[in-house]
Amino acid sequence: MTRIALLAIAAAIASPAAAQTLPAGLVTPVADDVAALRDAALKDDIAWDIVEGLTTEIGPRLAGTEAEARARAWGAAKLKALGFQNVRIETYQMPVWVRGEERAEVISPFPQPLRLTALGNSGATPAAGLTAPIAYFPTFGDLARAPDGSLKGKIAFVSHAMEPTQDGSSYGAYGVARFVGPAVAAKKGAAAIVIRSIGTDRGRGPHAGVTNFPDGVAPIPAAALSVADAENLERMVKRGKPVTLKLVLTPRQTGTHESGNVIAEVPGSDPDAGIVLVGGHLDSWDLGTGAIDDASGVAITAAAAKRIMAAGQPRRTIRVVWFGAEEVGGFGGEAYAKAHGDERHAAAAESDFGADRIWRFETNLPGSATAVGDRLQAALAPLGIVRGTGIAGDGADVGPMMAKGVAAIDLNQSGLRYFDWHHTPEDTLDRVDPEQLRQNVAAWTTMLAVVANAPEEIGAVTPRK
Amino acid sequence: MTRIALLAIAAAIASPAAAQTLPAGLVTPVADDVAALRDAALKDDIAWDIVEGLTTEIGPRLAGTEAEARARAWGAAKLKALGFQNVRIETYQMPVWVRGEERAEVISPFPQPLRLTALGNSGATPAAGLTAPIAYFPTFGDLARAPDGSLKGKIAFVSHAMEPTQDGSSYGAYGVARFVGPAVAAKKGAAAIVIRSIGTDRGRGPHAGVTNFPDGVAPIPAAALSVADAENLERMVKRGKPVTLKLVLTPRQTGTHESGNVIAEVPGSDPDAGIVLVGGHLDSWDLGTGAIDDASGVAITAAAAKRIMAAGQPRRTIRVVWFGAEEVGGFGGEAYAKAHGDERHAAAAESDFGADRIWRFETNLPGSATAVGDRLQAALAPLGIVRGTGIAGDGADVGPMMAKGVAAIDLNQSGLRYFDWHHTPEDTLDRVDPEQLRQNVAAWTTMLAVVANAPEEIGAVTPRK
To answer: Which domain of life does this protein belong to (chains A, B) (predicted)?
Structure first.
């Protein structure tokens, strides 16, 4: 809540007409059935069962690989076993990049190995490696301001100072070093680029992730050093002597392969009321087992939908989608929108930020559904969840549907630990706290109970920019 | 302090003759010069400079490799620059085992890669790998009780339940799975063995470390899975289906190579009073940069000795030894005892347990030096350090001297975090807390100020068993 909203409440309480001027969400009653579903979900075991199963029985599942195909089969079987209707796999084709050998070492002045991982879409070094001096940039801005041609024959090394933020906003602010740093370095003539991992840990596990080279810019070798290795390299740079690195990175593009979305439904009683679309992504990066990113999201949304299904038929159809190929470019979300964009959707929501406690929710609902937002505020408050003042619209996979004007609901997990392990080998089951996972299921169950059964019309909205 | 000792104090305080019956260390005054040295050391920067330098400018330094040789040259230069006397390198020859390729994957029922590292002295699989079913043992005891011959054609998988202990005692209790588990499995006919890392973390970094095969037992491939991978494998085992692993481990013995100890001195005024021997080990495992194990120990002991030197000549010579080849079998400590065993040593103390806060000290002093122990108790108390009731004698490197009857002093760091990172890729500078490192330097400075200047005779003791 903003300071201004807080002052408004304080003023309202002090006035004789307090009851009328308080925000409606603070005084809206919570329906007994919603409260009962919410509280029962705090004992949920369904989500843990899915996260544990997917990480143990499948493990890493890079988009477009046979591991992702096994994950789809596993997911369809699991969703059927849970009793969902219309369970199916919808496939599509996509380009697939795969990791090769990856090694780095300081050649001089202080020879020692460094730990890194190639960024998705990275180019390759010669098989025997590439040896070159580094050009150090403390921030992305420093790289962006380097003169054209000044990096010829050099390995750009870009650092940054990412710190944890509850809303995850530091990912966007510092992630630019990964998202576009390699393209910028390539345009300036760099032979390769290494970045400090986009992460908030101090460990040895490098953070993977895609980067993109626009048409006409030939990909250069691009990799993320672990944070500990990047800090070590920075200390070397600060000794003042030239630093030479050797990189061996042999990833490659393997052409077009099959990926797919796994879809399951809780059919609603009123087909005209529109679908409530929820889900997360089934693919993961290849270094960890994808527990927080995003076995948790598929698990939380399926568990919540299952709990609504068990309580009786909802008004609206709830469609659970376990999207494919999110990490490498959102191919699953695009394929879904292409296949289902003409169906009437009432609202969309995605869980793709781990499983730590949900601390905030935001909405983008039409005026006809203002009361839905107020009921959400009241029903979520006992879980420690505040109403934010922003406009909802998170989610790479449901983004293409939101762009078409589908109403949006965001349930925001805390990001304070998320980037310690995001895209690293450390994204494993151990990082999921069962109690916080249950709070997530309770919040999603509450949201679905309110939204899927809302008697109000939920029509199109203006999407968040 | 034991409960009995506590009751004794309580009883003493209640009695009219309280002053006479309180433990002497509680009421012994602290000399002003000792207190001043102790308190000044809480602002020490020397130790950090050494840890930062060794991890940045050398990095990993496996015993017997050229990296360890560079570390010796670096160490000798650093100790000379600090003003120590008689700085020299004393070399010796030792057998050197080096890591090769190391990969593992579950073949069935749930194909996915696992992270592991070969144990020192491990045998090798064929270059193409070894594929076999696993035989699961929840504890070392379960392995030890398996019938002879029952492991033929199998990969033994030994788990355990190590938890952190402040005194580090869980390392001995659970470490047996690494120390002798491979030999036990080999004797029972196992094709290979993987153990859950001897560690208290839940991460993906496997914990290296030596194992030993007695004469007549052919080494088998032996590796430690990361804790997260071991837990994943245990979950697979608990599904009830047979689990088949493929291991590729190609380490090898490379013959005899040179290693060495780096020695430096603060000459004392009384050559007959005996040497005070302090130090840590310069070599490290190869996966991390050896910050807590044991750049910290060489740094703490050298910084403390330097502070005593700067305060004026001590009575006893302080000899600082940065031992080589501790990790792989204590070759440096043995070489030292062989070369210097006949010189008179008054006391020995080693720092090889990271750099977290020292919480306890213990001694093994002769009766003539009882008052030295009491003065230590009084002088260390303001640093939050208690006097333990055990007999001192820690330290693989000074162990051979203690075995000859040299008096011992142990300054015990807290082990509550140590085994999260011990022997893993995560043993990097980030794990050293500068404030806790300073508390270590203060404790060691205090110890040296008391012991090196003690007017009492410090002669031989009965070594701890």
So the answer is: Bacteria
